[in-house]
Design brief:
This protein is an alpha+beta fold. About 35% of the residues lie in helices and about 10% in strands. The longest helix has 17 residues. The N and C termini lie far apart (about 95 Å). One of its GO terms (molecular function) is protein serine/threonine kinase activity.
Length: about 425
Amino acid sequence: MLDERNHVGLPSHIGCPLTNGLSKYHTYVQSDSKKRDQETLEDIFNDVRSLRLRPPSALSDSLDSDSDFDGESDGEAEFGYPPTTGYPGAQMASTNDTDVQLTPATTDTLDEIQVPTEPTPPTEATPPMAITAEMSLSEVLMHLKEHGCKDITSALDISKCSEYPVSNGGSGNIYRGFLHDGTKVGIKCLKLQLNSIGNTEKHIKHAAKELYTWSKCKHPNIVQLIGMAKFRDQIAMVSPWMENGTLSGSLSRHPRLNRYEVCVQIAEGVAHLHASKIIHGDIKGSNILVSDDLIPELADFGNSLVNETNPTLPFSDTTSPVTMSTRWAAPEIFEGPIRSSYEADVYALGMSILEVISGSLPYTGLNDIAVMHRTLASIHPERSEIHFPTGTAQGDQLWSLLTRCWDHKPDNRPTASGVRDEIKAIINGNH
């Protein structure tokens, strides 16, 4: 026999209204003939229809009593059910039906009894496709173009480009070239290492990452990126040709250059990068070029990072080793696993300022191993009395600034904008 309690979804401790109604019918059969004349089966089912759920406390004493269902109970207060003619999950059929039927509850009823509904998952925007080492050169160029990198392949006058590199950067070869309009340009392609056979795709991705980061940098103290090009089956980065070359070589050719002003301009470039959430990762004199009007401009973004949570153009994780410039590297870079940071940039900025003012490399006369040991031991470069004379306002103030840039604890170092402002104050005598 069907268990009506389970069928309508009632708790097991509550008597089923249908069962109670049938019990009344059993009483009807056994009653005297006069009572049979007064009651009909329809009366019995009408009783069933008018039942109201009641709390277990009210039902426990007299579940079989007719009075248990005489009046309306406040089911909402006790069970969270609304005091309606039905009960959770079902409603009774109309009075004209001879069978008791169960129909699904309406949406209004479900809302009233606060039945939990399946949450609608939030719609998420499709994440941008990441550039990976598996992509072809054409695919990479297409993605870069879609994200604002200008393709100037057709503008290059290949017939006037140098056959061999005229300069070798830390990670790239520089070719001299021309655009069809006569503009002289530098063309940078990543070096293909001797052990990189089969890893050309990784070099394409690395070049794409450098190019994309560089494309986001627009400032008077950052070398302009004219655009990208497909050059001899490689991704090339095209920029104005800098006749004066690197800062390291240019300083000796221009002894009258105001070196304090040069330091301010370098710090301006670094501060702009950091404000744009870009970490350079390899600041040093040989990565700073000098324009025709003797303005220092940051270059070489091969180690750079865009510090974005949701980058517009992501790149897959790289396993390629990061090149390290030992004399400019912060101690935490040696200690690992930090690759680069804003604070490490400031450490390198301090070493670059030392390089500009003194005209010599940091830790001059020492090999890289000795430099690394001194860096880890917090032994700073020796102070030159010629360039940082003790007892003078400029010498003492600038040396104090540099030693703070080289603090072993990254959090104790000033910001790039702070370095810029302090040097300005030293120049103006306001420090």
